[in-house]
Design a protein that fits this description.
The protein is α/β, with parallel strands linked by helices and 247 residues long. The protein has 8 helices and 7 strands, in the order E-H-E-H-E-H-E-H-E-H-E-H-H-H-E. Bound molecules: nicotinamide-adenine-dinucleotide. Nicotinamide-adenine-dinucleotide binds at residues 14-20, 38-39, 61-63, 88-91, 111, 138, 140, 183, 185-186, 188-191.
């Protein structure tokens, strides 16, 4: 399927592995020139070797606002205008109401909410000027159904979804779409960190199997496609049927 985005440019954060890397791979397969962002230069270089075209790598820690500013400057220098932002990072530490100190919240909100707000504030105005843009944030199915023992993630991602939904309405008439894609359980490092037995975890899903990161990346690339121009303000679950609510 021709996504109609060959020649576009994309900034993909949290892209040295997992769902971010899979999204970068799918965009690059569609002819998009991609900049991959993560903390480790070694991991980024290994990841870039799996991405088609001529990917750029930029090291930055999204928990550090200064790093984000520098990364945005470097990505503009490397790619010129940025047409597509895939905003992603690692998840915050697990914990529940009782075990999570107040002091843990600002870090989680920086990593999984404010980093994306900062990237949107920087990149969306130039997308609006050019009359074309795509923003996709990788959040979590927890926005539909909060996940036990992930109170920081549940809180940050709900806030991010509200920010992006509000922004989507404001910029829609300028050709910029803003969406979230909500992963359920996918076979990545994040899942190995959170759960001991992935077979048991998979058996609880309606599909009975963990999501494939490659499939997830192709969903993200489709949301960035020309044909998806009318999809905006949406939150798209990719969860093997895990969320049980009607919406
Ligand atoms: P992952 O941990 O496998 O990969 C995260 C990526 O982000 C890596 O490239 C990592 O190096 C990078 N990263 C982490 N912290 C960073 C930081 N401070 N600055 C820059 N880069 C950073 O995660 P994943 O499984 O690919 O998931 C992606 C996102 O989706 C995460 O936020 C995760 O919590 C969320 N999520 C994942 C699942 C799942 O089943 N995999 C389910 C629900 C939500």
């Amino acid at each position: 399927m021709d996504l109609g985005i060959a020649g576009r440019t994309a900034l993909v954060t949290g892209a040295s592995g997992g769902l971010g890397l899979a999204s970068a791979q799918a965009l690059a397969s569609a002819g998009v020139r991609v900049a991959l962002v993560a903390r480790s230069a070694d991991r980024l270089n290994a990841a870039a070797a799996t991405v088609e075209g001529d990917p750029v790598t930029i090291t930055a820690d999204l928990s550090q606002p200064g790093d984000i500013d520098d990364m945005l400057t470097a990505s503009r220098q490397a790619l010129g205008g940025i047409d597509i932002l895939v905003a992603n990072a690692g998840g915050p530490p697990p914990g529940n109401f009782a075990s999570t100190d107040l002091g843990a919240y600002p870090d989680a909100l920086q990593l999984n909410l404010l980093s994306t707000v900062a990237m949107c504030k920087d990149l969306i105005p130039s997308m609006q000027e050019r009359g074309w843009g795509r923003v996709v944030a990788i959040t979590s199915i927890s926005v539909r159904q909060p996940i036990d023992q992930l109170i920081l993630s549940n809180t940050a991602r709900a806030g991010l979804t509200a920010f992006l939904k509000t922004t989507a309405t404001e910029v829609a008439s300028d050709g910029v779409t803003v969406n979230t894609v909500q992963p359920g359980l996918h076979a990545t490092d994040r899942l190995t960190q959170l759960y001991d037995d992935l077979e048991v975890v998979a058996s609880r899903l309606p599909t009975g199997v963990l999501g494939d990161p490659g499939d997830f990346g192709r969903v993200v690339a489709f949301v960035c496609s020309e044909s998806a121009r009318s999809i905006t303000g949406a939150s798209i679950p990719v969860d093997g049927g895990a969320a049980q609510g009607l919406q």
